[in-house]
């Protein structure tokens, strides 16, 4: 009797960060991997990466690197930098059968992460304030940091007391209370915005947009406050800093990644042959995936499609066969996504722009920005060969607010691009940075060489459209969020909508979800290969004294949080679920 020793065939559908991560981890564990990506922009590298891909263009002989949004790597990220550390830069290292936990000798893509030392906080009509790092050692230090976040909003003392009290209730809550009580509320409900002044409500509205395109009336309290805390911990750990890439994302990261995976044996399919147009499902098993040019035969499938692709006709058979995906897609797409888009401004002259992310705190359009050029290395992208010296990369996260009587969604792409530049210039003024003499403006539009708008934005007869919306996390979504198992025998899910510890639609969340998907596939195939390492960010970073308080709260749950017992009755909560959760339709019967 002959034994089939051929490797297990796996088709990875989707070439974003999740799909690339899954392909990477699988090929290093001996699987026969093919990746299918619908985009074909001529250069395979620019076709990969999903929302993280660079949008390169040329004008008059110059090269301009646009982005859906600047690539910012908070210090708490672990999974994505770990993957980068296993992507070699040296050609001699590519294609080696590296063990899943073995790092290549010499340089890797992780060496292209540059420290981001500061955070700039801008308010219209004032000098920009640069926030310095300071270690957080006690509960009083924690209170002081929370007060610092509210300082520039000139909030009434009653608002500050309520907000600090509510945040301390959250951060002294154990993990079970966070999952079962606070995840069922929006951040606005948890922070009791209806009891705040107009300035207090504005602060709470501003809080989520610096993290991701979320709204205080939609994003759940657990997701936003956990990530806010991790970002805050990053800033008070002097030994560790946030990071930026040393060049355009596709050049600094995806090109060596693609070349390494290609050398390792991953087969890539783009365009018509990489576009899955349907799924042939027999009961609990996918027999094949269909493409415009043929079919995909594989033993197992990794579905790494973005959330919006699940709502397309091409995915209907897969979604219909999967109870978890059916439950997820019963929510309207617009209820679980919002717009976020990037703009880049290429200018002459180096100016004193903050060495890190800039949050324009009171911006009606929720703008955050980074001066990227200061981080870029010549061996990745040589700015000296271009007619500009700096690239100010901007992310717009609010699309329904008015500025100068204009609302972003009611503008053409070209008009919006120009207005974003004017909006940004109002903050990056000649007054400069606090503690530094004035002089040249931080951003001088008179020195503008070129401006780029996110290619996901397009004009249409119905108005502005965005083909790449960003997943948000309302309470109703969290209750329907699938794990890596879609209820099918030979399919695993790997995307940022899959439940994972990062719990946010980011590169880190996509990478972690892909690792979890690979671990499930290893289980399904009874593979002896080592499992992908997955970490708990809070366990890695929160101080021991706070963990002890949380453990105590876990022991008293569901009784009231101990810190909350010392608050006035008006500052307490009844842990009621969000109105978004209460209003959800009845759950469909589970399929068998």
CATH class of the domain at 9-56 and 78-111 and 247-332 and 480-536: Alpha Beta
What is the global morphology? globular
Range of helix content: 25-40%
Looking at CATH, the homologous superfamily of the domain at 9-56 and 78-111 and 247-332 and 480-536 is FAD/NAD(P)-binding domain
Strand element count: 24
Work out the helix count: 19
Structural class: alpha+beta
CATH architecture of the domain at 9-56 and 78-111 and 247-332 and 480-536: 3-Layer(bba) Sandwich
Rg is: 24 Å
Any idea of the CATH topology of the domain at 9-56 and 78-111 and 247-332 and 480-536? FAD/NAD(P)-binding domain
Major β-sheet annotation = 7 strands, mixed
Distance between the termini: 36 Å
Order the strands across the largest sheet as they lie in space: 8-7-17-18-19-16-20
User: Whole-number average pLDDT?
Assistant: 85
Low-confidence stretches: 580-592
In what range is the share of β-strand residues? 15-25%
Q: What does this protein structure show overall?
A:
This protein is an alpha+beta fold and 592 residues long. Among the domains are: 9-56 and 78-111 and 247-332 and 480-536, FAD/NAD(P)-binding domain, CATH 3.50.50.60; 138-237 and 543-582, no CATH class. The protein has 19 helices and 24 strands. The strands form 7 sheets. A 7-stranded mixed β-sheet has the order 8-7-17-18-19-16-20, with helices on one face. Strands 10-2-1-14-24 form a 5-stranded parallel β-sheet, covered by helices on one side. The chain has a 3-stranded antiparallel β-sheet with strand order 5-9-6. A hairpin with a 6-residue loop joins strand 7 and strand 8 (129-131). The longest helix is centred in the C-terminal third of the chain and has 18 residues, at 507-524. The two termini are 36 Å apart. Residues 580-592 have low confidence and may be disordered.
């Amino acid at each position: 009797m002959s034994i089939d020793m051929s490797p297990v065939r796996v088709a990875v559908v989707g070439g974003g960060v999740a799909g690339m991560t899954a392909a990477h981890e699988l090929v290093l564990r001996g699987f026969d991997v093919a990746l299918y990506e619908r985009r074909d922009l001529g250069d395979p590298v620019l076709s990969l990466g999903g929302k993280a891909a660079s949008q390169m263009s040329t004008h008059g002989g110059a090269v301009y690197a646009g982005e859906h949004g600047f690539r910012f790597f908070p210090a708490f990220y672990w999974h994505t930098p770990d993957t980068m550390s296993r992507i070699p830069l040296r050609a001699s290292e590519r294609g080696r059968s590296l063990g899943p936990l073995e790092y290549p000798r010499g340089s890797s893509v992780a060496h292209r992460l540059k420290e981001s030392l500061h955070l700039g906080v801008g308010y219209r009509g004032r000098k920009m304030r640069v926030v310095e790092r300071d270690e957080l050692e006690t509960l009083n230090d924690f209170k002081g940091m929370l007060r610092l976040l509210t300082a520039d909003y000139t909030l009434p003392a009653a608002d500050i007391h309520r907000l600090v009290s509510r945040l301390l209730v959250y951060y002294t809550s154990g993990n079970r209370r966070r999952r079962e009580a606070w995840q069922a509320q929006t951040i606005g409900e948890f922070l009791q915005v209806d009891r705040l002044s107009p300035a207090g409500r504005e602060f709470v509205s501003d809080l989520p947009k610096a993290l991701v395109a979320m709204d205080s009336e939609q994003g759940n309290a657990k997701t936003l406050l956990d990530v806010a805390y991790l970002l805050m911990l990053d800033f008070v750990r002097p030994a560790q800093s946030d990071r930026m890439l040393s060049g355009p994302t596709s050049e600094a990261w995806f090109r060596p990644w693609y070349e390494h995976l290609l050398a390792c044996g991953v087969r890539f399919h783009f365009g018509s042959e990489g576009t899955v147009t349907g799924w042939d499902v027999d009961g609990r098993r996918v027999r094949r995936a269909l493409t415009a040019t043929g079919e995909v035969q594989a033993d197992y499938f990794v579905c790494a499609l973005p959330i919006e692709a699940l709502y397309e006709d091409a995915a209907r058979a897969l979604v219909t066969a999967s109870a978890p995906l059916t439950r997820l897609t019963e929510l309207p797409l617009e209820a679980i996504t919002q717009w976020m888009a990037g703009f880049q401004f290429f200018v002459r002259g180096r100016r004193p722009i903050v060495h890190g992310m800039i949050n324009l705190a009171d911006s009606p359009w929720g703008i955050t920005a980074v001066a990227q050029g200061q981080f870029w290395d010549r061996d990745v992208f040589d700015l000296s060969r271009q007619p500009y010296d700096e690239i100010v990369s901007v992310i717009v996260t609010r699309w329904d607010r008015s500025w100068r009587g204009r609302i972003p969604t009611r503008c053409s792409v070209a008009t919006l691009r120009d207005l974003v530049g004017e909006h940004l210039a109002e903050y990056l003024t000649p007054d400069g940075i606090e503690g530094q003499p004035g002089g040249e403006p931080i951003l001088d539009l008179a020195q503008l060489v070129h401006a780029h708008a996110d290619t996901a934005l397009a004009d249409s007869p119905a108005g502005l459209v965005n083909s790449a919306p960003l997943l948000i996390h309302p309470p109703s979504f969290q209750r329907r969020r699938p794990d890596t198992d879609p209820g099918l025998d030979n399919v695993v899910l790997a995307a940022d909508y899959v439940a994972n510890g990062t719990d946010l639609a980011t590169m880190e969340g996509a990478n972690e979800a892909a690792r979890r998907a690979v671990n499930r596939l290893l289980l399904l195939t009874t593979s002896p290969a080592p499992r992908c390492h997955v970490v708990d960010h809070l366990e890695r970073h929160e101080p021991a004294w706070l963990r002890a308080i949380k453990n105590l709260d876990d022991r008293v749950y569901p009784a009231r949080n101990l810190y909350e017992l010392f608050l006035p009755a008006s500052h307490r909560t009844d842990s009621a679920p969000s109105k978004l959760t209460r209003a959800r339709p009845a759950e469909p019967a589970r399929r068998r």
